[in-house]
Amino acid sequence: VFISSHGRHEEDSINAALAGQVGFIGLVASRVRGAAVLASLDLTDEQASVVRSPVGVEIGARTAE
User: Fold this and answer.
1) By C-alpha distance, which of 31, 22, 28 is closest to 4?
2) Which is nearest to 14 in space by CA: 31, 36, 32?
3) Is there a contact between 33 and 7 (Cβ–Cβ < 8 Å)?
4) pLDDT for 8
């Protein structure tokens, strides 16, 4: 499951995906935003192991442009 919600309902989406026992959850977010979202959740080690953020291809960009 990939979550790209533009900063809305990310925690709810992650919790719903975890409840569905999916094997991979990718949060499309910046490193800072992704870390903040994950820190706000009370995840077990097992749950945290299936959530990744950021996701995508590392292109070495220094800015969003």
Assistant:
1) 28
2) 36
3) yes
4) 86
